[in-house]
What does this fold into?
Amino acid sequence: MNNYNSEFSVVGKPIPKLDAAQKAMGRAEYIQDIKMPGMLYGKILYSRYAHARIIKIDTSKAKALAGVHAVLTGEDVPGKMKMGFIKDNPPIKKGTVSSFRDEVAAVAAISPEIAKKALDLIEIEYEELKGIFDPEKAMEKDSPLVHEHLKSNVLKMPWNIHYGDVEKAEKESAFVVEDRFTTTWVTHCCMGTSGAVALFDASENLTIYTNTQIPSLAHKDFLEALKSMGLENKRVRVIKPVIGGGFGSKLDTYAYEHIAILLAYKCRKPVKIVFDRVEEFKATSTRQPTVIYIKQGCDKNGKLTFRDMRMVLDNGGHTSWGATTPSVMLMPISSLYRVENVKYNAKCVYTNNTYSQAMRGYGNPQATFAIESSMDILAKKAGFDRIEFRKINKNQSGDETPQGLKITSCGLEECIDAVKEELKFDGKNEKSVGTGIASLIHVGGGARIYGSDGCGAILKMDDYGKVDIFTGGTDMGQGLDNITAQIVAEELGLLAEDINVVHSDTDICPWDVGAHASRSTFVAGNAALGAAKKVKKKIQAFASKLFDVPAQEIELKNKLVFVPGDEEKSMPIGKLLRKAHFRPGGTMLMAEHFYDPDNQNMGKELKGNMSMTYSFGAHGAKVKVDEETGKVEVLEYVAAHDVGRAINPMLLEGQVYGGVVMGLGYALTEEVTVKDGEIMNANFRDYKLFTAKDAVKIKAPVIETDDKDGPFGAKGIGEPGCVPTAPAIANAIYDAVGVRIKDLPITPEKVLAALKEKNG
Amino acid sequence: MKEFKYLSPTSVEEAIDFHGQHSETARYIGGGTDVIVKLKDGWMEPDFLISLKKIQEMSELHKNNATGELSIGAMVTHATLEKSLMIQNEYPIIYDAVSNIGSLQVRNVGTIGGNLINAVPSADGAIPLIALDGMALLHGPDGERSAEVKDLFIAPYKTILKPGEILKKITIQPQAPHTGSAYIKFGRRAAMELPLIGIGVLLSLDDDLQTCTKARICLGVAGPIPIRAFDAEKLLAGKKINEEILIEAGKIAADESKVRDSVRGKAWHRKEMIRVQVKRMGLKCLEIIKDKN
Amino acid sequence: MITNISFLLNGDEISYDVKDHWTLLHLLREEMGLIGTKEGCGNGECGACTVIVDKLAVNSCLYLAVEADKKTIETIEGLASTEGSLHPLQQSFVDNGGIQCGFCSPGMIMSSKALLDENPDADREEIKHALAGNICRCTGYIQIFESVEAAKEMGGHDE
It folds into this structure.
């Protein structure tokens, strides 16, 4: 369906993932597969209550069990060892526990079975405290407090933003709509569960193999952990093995990693902690549940006048990076479509539920669900066609949004048109069938939410034309290894297979802020491209002397270094490299490049161009609603994305398909069922991921806008696929049967209840 | 998982004998897809596990051409039933139910007997066998006895089987000439589901192809054990079957059910699904009968 | 509580003393070091541990090792030829984007192999039915279906 740019040799080609054969043969080593001599197995005991005081812990029986090497409680954790965004979360709790997932003890033993048995022998006396599980109720004055010393459940991290003049704009609007939406907990469900292996060498330096998307930030966290343990000036090496999926779940460091470190130090042996599936559901973080109030208006010409949004986010018992998701929610709120007057207020509220974290989209799916549902409601009220209404308000190249986002390349209109072309939208559907559309904006050129948004790359060439590139970027299955290889190969006139991409080892690889914010293709890609350009220059300089022509006339292609049009002046690159090396005063070709995009940290004003460029897209769904059961069948799905440039179309489409299906789960089937803080469906039977049989037909038109700052014009595409899925479905359901579902997931119960209410 | 000794008798008698020797500490295992989960979770901690896999006669599926009786050994796997052309053609209700139990991997190992004995309210396997008036043949230390499949269940996870007793096979008598049967598992996903509600309907019609001579309406997850909606069946018996009367039967069946709210689904919706699906399965039965004529 | 079993594993005759309570998954991964077979849930709900026992795809996490006695077992490690070339299904998953994080891939490929060995002409619906027990969180399944369909064309399936 898509025609990809063919001006390149390697970029734009569907080259199979570099590690796919290894994975297809079952040879890739995941954390589950790592075994070391003398290795012990760690296991964690979690709280029996959502909220309680720990009165007494007796570990004597566990310690006495043969094969047990160590038992830890909160008392054994250094006071300064804390995790989370505001460092409010020790890896093992003492005093009070504030959720079922709170760690209360841990053991290391010679086998997983013995470790499990030891957990059963730990006796804990609790005094149960009253819990609070509804974030809106937790804001009330007489609510029980999750953390008494804080005096309030509302996090002291207010998001309060006002661009323009919303009150005035509302008064002047011709049409205004107002609604309340809710989204619930969903979870990543990485097929490979979380885990880590920690070990200390004889000099008390730490090596930790861990499932992480942020090797460099984890490195920093673990250095701090060692410091808290009294281990000053020690080294930390973080190695990420092959991981069975990320999706944002590995953007923090977690208790299991810190506990593995503590146990490994105490036992002076390698300690491995790997979650089982139940633990993965209960002790990893979810996407933030939100309550969203949205009001927006337009004038009589359909032009958006203002958008006013208020949110309450369930923070759970502790504060992770998840509490910063409003910073990303702000992006669609302020900048999806042109809207000058914007207000946004968000409160993160402590409850005794599980705490949330990053998950693909980082708040954007929640915000976009409300915005794009509301866009349809407003279009209808104002009497505009849904597609027209969106096009009236479309973002365009050259725009600067109220938040200060500078829109460079922008294919939003083309995406909307692509959806319209595939799904028609002519209102001529059969009974109970309807179409829906929803658009998205997302960061596509990095996201400066941390002091640095940079990534380093070191490139070296051997004597034969092969390249090793050491990148800060992290491959977690999404294919950054290919993107890196294809970019470098294109620049140096090589094949992707000539490029060996080394990543995810902090001893070897340069710094990178992590695989998040759909930034890796753009940022790590630019880092690799920068290094390749430097090496290319060196090659050209050497060849210039060799061929006696100006350097700029020399090209690299098909593993040759040559002057176009002059057959005499051509040499296989390997030969040229050897000529450069094996001579008096010889040189080998290497280069490093650190790319830190010229984007802005939003600062206190919450204004600034957080990304170098933005990705746009539009999704369309055609659904059929069974009006007797409430069940929704997705007949067709179109996901059109402005990706700047497809570096690898096959992997790109894989990101889109995977994102869409994750988004469809969010829309229709997935929810972590929580009852008084306890997760009731910690298994794949009751947590309803789409199966192969549920998979739907998806078309993925790709719009190439050749971004000026992207490597070969590329922008990020990791998250966008799952951002506008839920509103596209909700809008299609409304089109089909006239009911508006405002709470995710859209289950048959909710649809049928709404139909019954509508039909009386 | 706690350690145990695995025994694999080759006859029912030998199995019962093993059980007798270790009574309190022995458990039978069929395909294992339920038992092994229970062993892992520590819900079951036997010292002896007696496998029924090597008992040839329990794995046999056949139809007696002379009598028309269908005999399904308790150790016949769901996949064997699913793939059997005879089951597909003559007992579509069994096919409907077994072809969507768990995954193919589970169906390749899990057995129809195990599905019954496990006695969860959501077992798909029981509904069609009840609708077909299946008889269960039990064999225990005191010899053989039989019971209607519908009477096997006492409570969730509890059947009438006595200690040491084995469900050997299920038999089904030939159906009247104009019979149609269908089952639907209603869930949120297309596969890997426990039903929110499971509905099986069987209708036999007179030679006029209108008058109902026999009706079976069986419901799963509509109570602690699989149930028959007797009032709804009574409504249909002897009447001419059309959409209107099936709608009425659905309403009655919904009223007869003992659905509950659970983490998986709400009672009111389950009731609605009974109402709708009894009608739909009834219509599907009529279509099957029509197609055969 | 220890039983000696003999079985054919990827073409090799194996004799092994197994503990009666071991699962086949435990035997393969922990005892024999065949890490290609993955554990995703341990409860038969994800299919990552799928191996083929006497031509049938089974969850090795719910299959006792002792029951492998006299059986023919195929795991992901047995698919590629001894000269190193990939099995058509492996090659096809590589070439068609069927693999991202790769954790579900060995199980997915084994389920696909059991399907194509039995039904070399399996259509899209049959593929979906056969793979419904193999959960994948990365791909949205589409490129997996395309991989299986492309492998069909390549042939080489065991009869």
User: Anything to note?
Assistant: Chain B has a mean pLDDT of 96. The longest strand of chain B covers residues 178-186.
